[in-house]
């Protein structure tokens, strides 16, 4: 009987340890896998000051909004409360599910959407307002991607780190709370192209 009990306890301990490892793997993997990708985009929650600075850059703006690397959905939810149809793209499924819960809790779930997706596999061409919480390593390539995809009326808002080549049209905040806004019509030279196509006529 003693041997039988030891075997039972041994099986229970093995099952418990195995279950714990599986649960730990399920929780940790979504946070580890992004770090193993081409560019690491860690989750760092936006501060309340950063959110206010982003909203300041969205004043007098309309249209759709996308947050690239939306984390726990703070920017998307704040924008939805200001009337934007806001979308977040995030690689970590746990953060996406939590964002959806927060949007439901705050009563803006009908104006928000969150997708589990790699930002390099998504086209942002249909958005007129783009928010980016990036890292220096990704900004040059992302700058090229957005320049190819966005229309001339789009505005890109970068948080924490600016784009390397574009000159910001507006800047606000200090330190890690600094926010840079880039109007695509200036960064791409759309105004020059439009004036060349439709020259002004004297009245």
UniProtKB/TrEMBL annotation:
Transmembrane regions: 12-33
Bilayer disposition of the protein: Single-pass membrane protein
Compartments, as annotated in UniProt: Mitochondrion membrane
Sorted UniProt keywords: Membrane, Methyltransferase, Mitochondrion, S-adenosyl-L-methionine, Transferase, Transmembrane, Transmembrane helix
Top-level taxonomic group: Eukaryota
Keyword Transferase annotated: yes
Any one Gene Ontology molecular-function term assigned to this protein's record: protein-lysine N-methyltransferase activity
Any single Gene Ontology cellular-component annotation: mitochondrial membrane
GO terms (BP aspect): methylation; positive regulation of sensory perception of pain; regulation of mitochondrial ATP synthesis coupled proton transport
Family that this chain belongs to: Belongs to the ANT/ATPSC lysine N-methyltransferase family.
Protein's name in the database: ATP synthase subunit C lysine N-methyltransferase
Native source species: Dromas ardeola
């Amino acid at each position: 009987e003693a041997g039988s009990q030891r075997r039972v306890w041994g099986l229970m301990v093995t099952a418990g340890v195995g279950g714990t490892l599986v649960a730990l793997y399920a929780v940790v993997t979504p946070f580890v896998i992004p770090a193993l990708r081409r560019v690491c985009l860690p989750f760092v929650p936006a501060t309340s000051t950063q959110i206010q600075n982003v909203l300041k850059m969205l004043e007098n703006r309309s249209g759709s909004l996308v947050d690239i690397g939306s984390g726990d959905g703070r920017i998307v939810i704040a924008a939805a409360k200001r009337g934007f149809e806001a979308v977040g793209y995030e690689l970590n499924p746990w953060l996406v599910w939590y964002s959806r819960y927060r949007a439901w809790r705050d009563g803006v779930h009908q104006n928000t959407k969150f997708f589990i997706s790699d930002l390099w596999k998504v086209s942002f061409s249909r958005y007129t307002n783009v928010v980016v919480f990036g890292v220096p390593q990704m900004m040059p390539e992302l700058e090229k991607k957005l320049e190819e995809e966005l229309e001339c009326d789009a505005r890109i808002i970068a948080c924490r780190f600016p784009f390397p080549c574009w000159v910001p049209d507006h800047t606000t905040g200090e330190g890690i709370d600094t926010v840079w806004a880039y109007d695509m019509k200036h960064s791409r030279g759309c105004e020059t192209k439009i004036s060349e196509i439709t020259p002004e006529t004297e009245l």
